[in-house]
Model the fold of this input.
Amino acid sequence: MTASWITFDLTAVEPEEGAPAPDRLLSGDPRFRTWNVEEAEGGLYAGVWESTPGKWRIVYEEWEYFRIISGYSIVTDDKGEIIHLRAGDSLILRPGFSGTWEVVETTRKDYVIRL
Done:
């Protein structure tokens, strides 16, 4: 029988490596690591994401909740509204959100995404 819970034990998950698409990169050389701990039916994902410093454009087609575990990032929407994100901060980005994500200090977040 499968357990009814999943822990965020990153030692049990091989991280995926990545970076922003070249056409979205605005500055720096950010590198991503993503530990996907859950991929459930219906397009639900949960895990941990980390990025080194840099800035890139973001466009959300999915719904995402996240909580910053460490680091410092700045998210700016296309209207120029800015939110500073530090350890303990939580945010929901809804489908249709577009703007920029700037990692000032290497940032790690846990997340839940619904496609």
The mean pLDDT is 96. Residues 23 and 57 are 9 Å apart (CA to CA). Strands lie at 16-18, 25-28, 32-40, 44-51, 54-59, 63-77, 82-86, 90-93, 98-114.
